[in-house]
Amino acid sequence: MGFVNVYLAYLRNNLFMRLLLLFSLITIITIISFSFFMYHSMSQAAINRELDIQKKAMMNVNDYLGQKYDSAQSILFGLYRDSSLAAGVSFMLQHPFQEYVQHSLEQNNLGGNSTWNDGLEYFKNHLEDDEDIRNVMLYSVDQQVLYVLSHNRPMRLISTNAAHSYIPEVMALDSKSVSLPNIWVREAADQWDNHLYAVRTPINDKQTLKNIGQQLVYFSSDSIWKVLSDEQQDLKGAILVLSSEGGVLFDSSDQYYGKPYPYMDQVNAMYEHSEMNNNNYVTKLTQNKGDFIVVGLMPKEELSASSWRIGSTIFSISAVCIAIAILLPSLVVLNVAKRTNLIIRFTRKVKQGDLTARIQDAREDELGQISRSFNEMIDELNQYIDRVYKADIKQKHTELTALQARVNPHFLYNTLEVIRMRAISQGAHDVGEMIYSLSALFRSFVQQKKVYTLKDELEACRLYLELFQIRYKDKFTYTIEWDRKLAPLRIMKMSLQPIIENYIVHGLRNESTDNQLHIRVHQMEEFLHVQVTDNGNGITSERLKEIEQRLQTEESEDESFGLRSIHQRLKLLYGSKYGIELRSTPGHGTTVDVWLPADGGKEDYDV
Fold this sequence. Notes:
Layout: H1 2-11, H2 15-81, H3 83-94, H4 97-109, H5 119-129, E1 133-140, E2 145-150, E3 153-159, H6 167-173, E4 178-179, H7 183-189, E5 196-204, E6 211-220, E7 238-243, E8 248-251, H8 264-269, E9 273-274, E10 280-287, E11 292-299, H9 300-351, H10 366-425, H11 431-446, H12 454-471, E12 476-481, H13 497-507, E13 515-524, E14 527-534, H14 541-551, H15 562-574, E15 579-585, E16 589-597
Parallel strand pairs: 12-13
Antiparallel strand pairs: 1-2, 1-6, 2-3, 4-5, 5-6, 7-8, 7-11, 9-10, 10-11, 13-14, 14-16, 15-16
Helix pairs in contact: 2-9, 3-4, 9-10, 10-11, 10-15, 11-12, 12-13, 13-15
């Protein structure tokens, strides 16, 4: 009901409010739809951008680890290229360290190749050349001895006898190239830094190709940050490097170091792009060469934060656009509505008869032109009224007055002539009665009544007919048929009497004794129909056409005015659809139909 009341009060009859409401709805829906699609596309673009940045960083990490794997392999490749150096390292790994030292001294004394005893120095140089290496370890399978090389520390020789250590079993079972440092090796080397990853490479005798040991290179995981420095400011989420068993080799979030990654099963089961759970976007890169996995985790909360910032910006801009798009047209529409209502108000003033009203609007737009045209129209209307309408009204009133002035004397002269002829011819006793009827008839004509009704006109007709019924005694009869309910209807004075007089003068047959006149009155919708029928002489067709033509022309002073007087006055007072119609048959009589307004007309005429 509230919406219906608002509609009835403000919208139903207010075109501008409906247009403004429609425009506002279209604007709001358009801007909201555009903002939604923009938010969706920009959010998706922001997500893709963040994921691309992360993937680029992941590729850099992947390439870096591949390079470190290759650098660890290149240590042994360089060893194998130098036969003397390879022979010295093989001897060191297959014999006790004391024998190696003694044999090295003997080789020097005998002037042998100096590089034969530089094996440990070779590995030491590689350790010092690469700042990312924390330890280089050489394991001897035959001697079960671990050589540990570290920065700024002398070489350590650690016995890993199977009776006292699990390292031989670890070395025998561990076949992965890149992995976490083994706990037993850590303990033996006293290396407990969690931010390390190990590259293990088997050492084979160059001559026999027999596996004689293992090379373990421990790299610092923190060195990976060097390849992330360019993206670190824009990088969101976390990047992890995982071994095939789920060991965390690198964690940019520093959350999973020192423990196995808890979602390794999901990582192994996923493709490169997938959602691991409802909280993270996951990207996966697999490095076959080093058998490690680079995983990118992008929490949805961080992406949502970026989307929220984008959404808030778009929302703010959309709100401002909606406000401007509605406010400015509203001001324009309300201004146009105000000017339009001003025009409507002034047209109503003119409708009520105030022809002095003028619209003050000096603008050059369409409404300004309408206002000026309206003012010009009123000016021309006033001039027309002064020139034509008022003159026409005066002319009509003059014609009506002239017609009425001619009706009364005409009737008076005829009536006096009748009385005179009656008195001369007979001197009958009914003269007094005729004079009485005549005086009553004159009284009805002379008396000025504000409201002249059908009853008054029919009474005047009756008095007139009474006079002639006395004159033509036993030769003339009349009847008047009408509904007494129609008595108060207003009609024009002397709208029927001249018709009766016209019959007495032109239609009555003096030689006949059955002269009859019938007056019938009834209402037909908006018309009051009066039919006057007689059985008199009638009118020939030529004469009837001539009379009908004269009814439509102005009356000359020397012509009789009976029917034409009624016809002209009815049209002047009530309009073109009112008047009289004639039908006649020679020798059988005439019928006159008079059409009057059933509501008495729009104006009060007393003529």
